[in-house]
Amino acid sequence: MTGRRGGDGLRCMLMRGGTSKGAYFLADDLPSVPADRDDLLLRVMGAPDPRQIDGIGGAHPLTSKVAVVSRSGAADADVDYLFLQVGVDEPTVGDRQNCGNLLAGVGPFAVERGLVEPGDAETVVRIRMLNSGSIATATFATPGGRPEYAGGTAISGVPGTAAPILLDFEGTEGSATGSLLPTGRVRDVIDGIEVTCVDNGMPVVVAAASDFGVTGDETPAELEERLGDRIQALRVRAGELMGLGDVTGASVPKTTLVAPPRAGGTIGTRTFIPLRVHASIGVLGAVTVATAVLLDGAVGHDLAELPAPGEPMGIEHPTGRLDVDIRLGTADGTDGTDGPGGVPRVRRAAIVRTARKLFDGTVFPRPPGDPHGPT
């Protein structure tokens, strides 16, 4: 730990990133020992408690998130970003996945904290995502050298509009598993359900909603009540096949049920994260699902209304849609998604998000050793 604390408090910025909300910290402001860091963050967020009433967590996985940011020592990056998923009613802090929504706030946060020199009108920040080692480039407006949060870009799941942030991804294939298709197959069968296990920034198990006896248009609450146990059994078995080991208590893989689009998009989705259903869909989850449905023979490929070449794919979700620009090619460098090159390679993955600074100041964690929380 450094001396950057005020009293018993801790410097913190609360930001909305995409359709998530989280606490952003400089790495130097947190303990360097992971176990000590995680204990502190549990006390900051108010976990374990389903209401997180004694912390700043929002009582949902989408609002119980942390971004840890520092200057990068890598030649191809400006800053390093570690994402931590803090449990709500369990005392867990997970680092096995990226979060593309909180990623949207990393560039502006880096400028706010002086980690990156801003441009007069626009700033480009190359971000190394430590959870996977892959690189994302964030491009956003900085008029007068300050991040601009107000703007006219709307994203589904967030009221109003804000300034756009363009995120380009590099090297996201096999982010947690080492392979775009970690089982080595386009389709697998688990407990009688056909699935596609894919990892392009987020390990995801893609299954047809109809195979679970649902339409894929149900509300998140209805799906949680009807399918929670079956989804857990499916993802635990899929985790083994994907080389992730025992994922019983892990946040990945996610499970996405796909269905034909209903609102002019490419594919309809409902995503379990891992057991709660996302109110929309995660950025890298959407990138991964879009990649899957482009693959001939994958679950969802036959359900999708694929756009014209070069056009973005509209991933429909419970609160709207998310447009993703995905370009695939074969491993030998030719265009297309099949042929002698074998497994496709991701040539481009890009998305537009927004972010907003909500609070900047000092957060006061629950005291260590509190009998109502972890010790």
If you had to describe this structure to a student in words, what would you say it looks like?
The protein has 375 residues and is an alpha+beta fold. Residues 1-6 and 337-341 have low confidence and may be disordered. It has a 17-stranded mixed β-sheet that branches. It has helices spanning 34-45, 100-112, 220-241, 283-294; strands spanning 10-17, 20-26, 65-71, 79-86, 93-94, 122-129, 134-141, 165-170, 188-190, 193-199, 203-208, 254-259, 267-272, 313-317, 320-329, 345-353, 355-363. It is built from 4 helices and 17 strands. The longest helix has 22 residues, at 220-241. Its EC number is 5.3.2.8. Belongs to the PrpF family. One of its GO terms (molecular function) is isomerase activity.
Following the backbone from N to C, one meets helices and strands in this order, namely EEHEEEHEEEEEEHEEHEEEE
Give the strand content: 25-35%
**What number is the mean pLDDT?**
92
Number of helices: 4
Outline the biggest β-sheet.
17 strands, mixed
- According to DSSP, the number of beta strands is 17
The quaternary structure here is single chain
Query: What share of residues is helical?
Result: 10-25%
Distance between the termini: 19 Å
Radius of gyration from the alpha-carbon trace, in angstroms: 20 Å
Overall geometric form = globular
Structural class: alpha+beta
Poorly predicted spans: 1-6, 337-341
